[in-house]
Specification:
The protein is of the alpha/beta class and about 350 residues long. It is about 45% helix and about 15% strand. The protein is built from 14 helices and ten strands. Strands 1, 2, 3, 4, 7 and 10 form a six-stranded parallel sheet that branches. A two-stranded antiparallel ribbon has the order 5-6. Strand 3, helix 5 and strand 4 form a beta-alpha-beta unit. The longest helix has 18 residues. The termini are close together.
Length: about 350
């Protein structure tokens, strides 16, 4: 039975079952494994930035601890998996937390919450952004639309015009999400050109460095956070979707990001993290470059569980397409991923 069908059939029973009961059931039925979760931003009321609510995160971590779930380091979870493959023995239910992109709110907002529960957290960062050489394209797009001199933009993408318009904040968010989807489908060079054209159409000049609400950690911040227990790994050099890049750029994005993270930090996570990370965003070419750089594991954002059957579930290339689920403020939903 496929996983989605099994979860659908089990839903009525699980809705009435406590999280502790679910953990016991998973252990008793051999459905052990590690759910690796991915988060991005954390809500900062002082800056008005959206993201995960720290109080909800605190509640989730407390419930996971109380119902007997191990909170583990992401790299440790993979090391355990390598042991599971060899020994094939149950190690219970665990959850690992990862954070992509490395915004300042990880340290300001989330780190104290993770520390309350002695919960390891691994963050994947982008050296060009950390070093202040650029800022994330989706943040530049958001800033552009917030400061546009007009609320209707039209640019030529080479295959016809792109038109977006908005009248209020909800419609601006919808327009921005539509543009993000269009840009993600382009090659890296095309998307950069369209971003420049959008800025001209909006009548704005995008700042060279990220304004405060888009601020990411710099290397000094990261080294300080590392000394306090947060671990960091490479997430490409500038965060393009790798499958949309030339082989030369892919090599640079992967190899240089790994090299810079190792040059700056004392104990980096030896797992690469794909930008975006969905099906079609990476493939055999990226696997080869990652391995040539001395890494043997990479995280995607494709759902799945790190467990003894992972090679059967995912395939022989599972190490280079490690699964992660998006974080939810609901312990039951997090644990049901194990079904």
């Amino acid at each position: 039975m496929r996983g989605w069908a099994r979860r659908a059939l089990a839903a009525p029973l699980l809705s009435a079952m406590s999280s502790r009961g679910l953990v016991r059931m998973l252990g008793a039925t051999g459905r052990s494994g590690c759910v690796v979760l991915v988060l991005h931003r954390f809500a900062n009321p002082d800056l008005g930035t959206p993201g995960h609510c720290p109080d909800s995160l605190r509640s989730v971590l407390g419930r996971l601890r109380r119902c007997g779930v191990r909170l583990v380091d992401a790299e440790h979870a993979i090391d355990e998996q390598e042991g599971w493959v060899a020994r094939d023995r149950w190690r219970g239910v665990s959850v690992a937390f990862t954070v992509d992109d490395g915004y300042q709110d990880l340290v300001d907002i989330a780190a104290p919450v993770f520390a309350e529960f002695d919960c390891p957290v691994s963050c994947f960062v982008v050296p060009d952004v950390v070093g202040g050489h650029s800022w994330f394209w989706w943040d530049r797009l958001d800033w552009l639309m917030r400061h546009a001199a007009r609320r209707q933009l039209e640019v030529d993408q080479g295959r016809g015009p792109i038109n977006v318009a908005w009248t209020d904040e909800p419609s601006r968010v919808r327009a921005r999400e539509r543009l993000e989807g269009i840009l993600k489908g382009m090659t890296h060079d095309e998307s950069q050109r369209v971003m420049r054209d959008l800025a001209v159409a909006a009548g704005v000049e995008i700042p060279a460095t990220a304004p405060g609400e888009y601020r990411t950690l710099d290397w000094n911040d990261i080294r300080t956070a590392e000394r306090r227990g947060i671990r960091f790994g490479p997430h490409s050099l500038s965060h393009p979707i790798l499958s949309r890049c030339s082989t030369e750029q892919v090599t640079r994005e992967i190899v240089e990001s790994i090299a810079q993270v190792h040059a700056q930090l004392s104990d980096p996570v030896r797992i690469f993290c794909y930008p975006n990370g969905n099906l079609g965003d990476f493939g055999l070419r990226e696997y080869e470059v990652i391995q040539s750089a001395g890494y043997h594991h990479a995280f995607s954002t494709i759902g799945g569980v790190v467990r003894p059957t992972i090679e059967t579930d995912i395939g022989p290339d599972w190490r280079l397409r490690l699964p992660r689920f998006p974080y939810e403020d609901n312990v039951g939903r997090i644990l049901r991923n194990l079904l």
